[in-house]
Design brief:
Blueprint: H1 3-10, H2 20-37, H3 48-60, H4 62-65, E1 73-77, H5 85-91, E2 96-101, H6 104-117, E3 122-125, H7 128-131, E4 141-146, H8 152-159, E5 163-173, H9 179-189, E6 192-202, E7 207-216, H10 228-233
Length: 236
């Protein structure tokens, strides 16, 4: 099957159904990803089915469990090649999206994709912990999302500072067994509260996935996020 056919099959039972325009946009995104991946390391997953299921469908699972408000301000922290943030924007062009990453070359790629797809997003070149101390970004988003490869206690320190009171941070994880228990202290210190945990299997044997929803119930103390060295040396 083509990437498009695989994506249609993988998302046939999803809450949000993609239009022809959105499918075409994802096809073009896939083509640009393959083209740019030859010049820089954007993804280790390169086959059509892997892109369709493990990147695109995986990103879209958010809409199976959560209602994202119209015109919500969303930040994807450590966005990499744009997952999940850019896929969410394609599916819901009303959201006001910010893509944050520490590598400028990734943002250059994402800017090219946005222009090609006629979409807009704010691109921010910053380390996550530095952006979290930026008063223009701190506690100003309805939703923070991340598929970054970090333990949940570390990921929470990177992401929760961006979230406004009563907003959410949703972590996209593989198997998160054990991580949640280890992260509860960090989540509490940072002003969060675990609201829901969704465990599911991606279609087409795409693997086990977990979405962890953390609500922002108190402001994050000013000292967080700490410098990256301290976060890694002494996780909360």
């Amino acid at each position: 099957m083509t990437m498009r056919e695989t994506l249609i099959a993988a998302t046939k039972d999803f809450n949000l159904q993609l239009s022809e325009k959105q499918l075409s946009q994802l096809e073009r995104y896939h083509a640009l990803l393959a083209e740019w991946n030859e010049k820089m390391n954007l993804t280790a997953i390169t086959d059509d089915e892997g892109i369709a299921v493990k990147h695109f469908a995986d990103s879209l699972t958010l809409f199976n469990y959560y209602d994202i408000p119209q015109n919500a301000r969303v930040i994807d922290v450590g966005t990499g090649a744009g997952f999940p943030g850019l896929v969410l924007k394609i599916a819901r062009p009303d959201i006001e999206l910010t893509l944050l990453d520490s590598l400028q070359k990734r943002l250059t790629f994402l800017d090219a994709v946005l222009q090609e797809l006629n979409l807009d997003a704010n691109l921010i070149h910053s380390r996550a912990e530095e952006g979290g101390q930026n008063m223009n970004l701190r506690e100003s988003y309805d939703l923070a999302v991340s598929r970054a490869v970090a333990q949940l206690n570390v990921l929470s320190e990177y992401c929760l500072p961006y979230v406004r009171l009563s907003g959410w941070f949703i972590a996209f994880k593989g198997s998160a067994e054990g991580e949640l228990q280890n992260a509860k202290n960090a989540i509490g210190i940072l002003g969060g509260k675990v609201k829901s945990v969704q465990n599911f299997e991606l279609p087409m044997d795409g693997g086990s996935r977990t979405l962890i929803e953390i609500e922002k119930v108190r402001p994050t103390p000013d000292r967080y996020p700490r410098p990256n060295g301290k976060i890694k040396a002494k996780p909360l």
